[in-house]
Amino acid sequence: LEISERLNDSWRIVDIYMNLGIEEDLAGDWDKAWSQYQTALEEAERLGSVKQIAAIALAMGNLALKRGDHNGALALFKRALTLSNEHGYSAYLVDIGLGLIVVHLEKGDIDSALSQLAEVQDQISAIGTNNQESELFRVKAQLALATGDTEQALAHAGHAVDLARELALQPEEGISLRVLAEALIAGGQADAAQETFAKSLEQLRDHFPYEAAQTQAAWGSMLLAGIDPKTGQSLMAAAMATFEKLGVRQ
After folding, report:
1. DSSP for 125-169?
2. What is the C-alpha to C-alpha distance for residues 40 and 19, in angstroms, rounded to an integer?
3. What is the chain's alpha carbon radius of gyration, rounded to the nearest angstrom?
């Protein structure tokens, strides 16, 4: 960063601040991540660097989504989407679409989520490649759960896990294992769900605090339903402590 500043390499400075934001984002220091993203965005806007603006808006949208700020996430995703469509940044469209699906899902708007999924699949067909295939199948599993199609949820979640494992994507595998566990619960397979939650937490707990807390909350909710309330309370308490630290809206 210091070298880029001395050389007055403004475009490189934007990239550095964005990468610093991504590092803080993954580490769980979301206030610092937001500040780094904001600095990157302001510099990109000063430069008129539209592609960088779109990329930063996408990253900020994902962070806002994790914090539970659905309206903020929606506005940022829409900004990224508008710029990407206007300037032909097709590489961003699938990521933006997947983010929008999750926003709609979390808001309970299943119809909009399904409509957005159709758009994402059209974009993948047009682009011809999909680097987010594991995430796509995970989102399909979540949609299947939301519509009560347990069989499809199990199939999609299992496929998401397999794809993530094949590509050695640790966070993706851990997140997909959580969704698979939720599908197993819906299918009445409590023992298998417990084992799968444990695998998910093992994958996530050391380096991905938010996702680990999501697994703890989902697992704890299952146990609180009657299988093991004491352990469920412990898992929920750990998840809530992490959410509070991160500033997640409950």
Report:
1. HHHS--TTHHHHHHHHHHHHHHTT-HHHHHHHHHHHHHHHHHTT-
2. 9
3. 19
Give the integer Cα–Cα distance in Å for 139 and 160: 9
Residue bearing the bigger pLDDT, 218 or 249? 218
d(CA 17, CA 36): 5
Residue pair 103/70 in contact by the 8 Å Cβ criterion: yes
Give residue-wise pLDDT tens across range 7-31.
Answer: 456 889 999 999 999 999 988 999 9
> What's at 31, amino acid-wise?
D
* Cβ atoms within 10 Å, residue 206: 9
Q: Which long-range contacts (CB under 8 A, 24 or more apart) does 40-49 make?
A: 40/14, 40/15, 43/10, 43/13, 43/14, 43/17, 44/14, 46/10, 47/10, 47/11, 47/14, 49/11, 49/14
Q: In the predicted model, what is the mean pLDDT of the chain?
A: 93
Mean per-residue pLDDT, 240-248 = 94
Tokens 């899902």 belong to 105
